[in-house]
Automatic annotation (TrEMBL):
Residues 15-101, 108-205 form the Ig-like domain. GO terms for cellular component: bicellular tight junction; cell-cell contact zone; plasma membrane; protein complex involved in cell adhesion. This is Junctional adhesion molecule 3. It is a single-pass type I membrane protein. PANTHER family: JUNCTIONAL ADHESION MOLECULE 3A, JUNCTIONAL ADHESION MOLECULE C.
Length: 278
């Protein structure tokens, strides 16, 4: 008994059917034992065992004689290695197997894009793009006014003075300093082997330094300070903050006598009065 020996790598887009071939040659055993196993992250699980489909493919697969497995409506979770094992007890070689690697590709969905509505000339800013459904992981491209931005702006004569940088793996578009020419419509595209998708365009406006805004803010602060000062003056004028009675006789101080008195003579002490003269 022998099985066609190969290690196959199949690429397939999601939603399609795929047939994994396990071709048995020159077999003498009438009813060989056939098993299929799915190996994902190094952990095997049964796909076909004891003449029936098992595991997560129970309702999406079938055995096609003599030993092929057909998977319907493939999804990203089907990406794994599949091993066909055949045992033939009446053959001189009573066991054989093959290993097939299956990678199910998933087209990206519409990425989530973040574009600032307005920035000031000379400041830094970042545009973001993210998509996490596609498989393999997509690469990202940015477009400005419907024209693709090259990863290196130096290769374009009209972008040679631009300060942006693009990370195609993370979808980040960063400007170290923004120019007036950077204003316009932006959108991002996520692309892999299964297809591509892009987000709707968004407008980024670029303004000069807002002198008027700064002036108005300063005026606002000055107005607040003047209003506070006027409030203090009003309170002082109407005595709201004065301490009444500090110069009036609101307190009864004990009367003081210029004479120095000592204990009574009856107590056996000398008493000195102001009229005593030596």
């Amino acid at each position: 008994m022998a099985i066609t020996r190969l290690v196959a790598c199949l690429l397939l887009c999601t939603g399609f059917a795929i047939e994994l071939t396990c071709l048995i040659e020159s077999i003498s055993t009438n009813n060989p034992r056939i098993e299929w196993k799915k190996i994902k992250n190094g952990i095997p699980s049964y796909v076909y065992f004891q003449n029936r489909i098992a595991g997560d493919l129970e309702h999406r697969a079938q055995l096609r004689e003599p030993a092929n497995i057909v998977i319907f409506n493939t999804s990203r979770s089907d990406t794994a290695e599949y091993r066909c094992e055949v045992a033939a007890i009446d053959d001189q070689r009573d066991f054989d197997e093959i290993l097939i690697s299956l990678a199910v590709r998933v087209k990206p969905v519409v990425p989530r894009c973040s574009v600032p509505e307005a920035v000031t000339v000379g400041t830094s800013t970042e545009l973001r793009c993210l998509e996490n459904e596609g498989f393999p992981a997509p690469q990202y491209r940015w477009f400005h006014n419907s024209e693709e931005l090259p990863q290196d702006p130096k290769i374009s004569p009209k972008l040679v003075n631009s300060s942006y940088s693009i990370n195609p793996d993370t979808g980040s578009l960063k400007f170290r300093w923004v120019r007036k020419e950077d204003a316009g419509e932006y959108y991002c595209q996520a692309k892999n082997d299964a297809g591509h998708a892009q987000c709707p365009s968004q407008t980024m406006e670029v303004y000069d330094v807002d002198i008027l805004g700064i002036f108005l803010k300063v005026c606002g602060v000055v107005t607040v300070l003047l209003s506070f000062g006027a409030f203090l003056c009003h309170c002082l004028k109407h005595g709201c903050l004065s301490k009444k009675g500090l110069n009036e006789n609101n307190f009864n101080w004990p009367a003081q006598n210029d004479a120095v008195e000592y204990a009574d003579a009856d107590e056996g002490h000398f008493r000195h009065k102001s009229s005593f003269i030596i």
